[in-house]
Amino acid sequence: MSSLLRLAAHCPLRLLHALGVLAGWAVYLGSSRYRRYLAENLRGAGFGASAVRRAAVAESGKAVLELPAVWLRPLEAVARLVVEEQGWHHVDAARRSGKGLILLTPHLGCWEIAGQYIASRIPLTVMYSPPKLKALEPYMVAGRSRHKLKSVPADLRGVRAMLKALKRGEAIGMLPDQVPGVGEGEWVDFFGRPAYTMVLVSRLAEQTDAPVLTVFAERLPGGRGYRFVVEPMLPARPPESPVRALNRSLEQLIRRRPEQYLWSYNRYKVPAGAPEPGAEADAP
Question: Could you tell me if residue 197 is inside a domain?
């Protein structure tokens, strides 16, 4: 596997994305469960058009085949894959506050390169969870732990490290649409369906008064590279909770390029031991 990944890392992005389209369709056609799950998630979120589904199949394959280039190329070369940028002035303004900066990257576009690009410019601490395919772990760790990029475990030690980074006035990065563990989330709407959503973002923001920005690296057509986009998180609209405001901010991003969202991720699962949706409100 090592030789194949290193070979892929040297391939042009255009070729990796072209192969990714083929890989995406191979998985889609080979798994009826995947086809059904993808269609249900897209339709449930209001993106039931067949054109969006076909594009999502292709983009999911690109998301996998581009990883060797992101993890194994030198950081300077990875950063150069970002050929367009929007909103970096929000980062500069937030850093001037001296209170740190919370950057949220959903599973949209190439979330791996978003962190790499940020760390090519400012110190960034991100949480790390081992991949399901253990053979990929050393490459993921290497890609996420270099230059100004630091990875910390997705546990209490990691939370403490991120809090310390914020208190130093540095940036931290999180995937806010990951399903948290029991006791670490709230049931709030995500595209009209209850989704167990992390409360860590709002708690860190409350503790440190750090600004919160959303970022994503949009995959451009033809393997041309990526457009890096930064925006402030939407404020809560009372009586809306900060956690629902977080999901509303993610929805706003995803609606722009729904085909580049990871719809195959089980965003609506119930973590073991967590209350069912609505049970919290019914509890005495």
Answer: yes
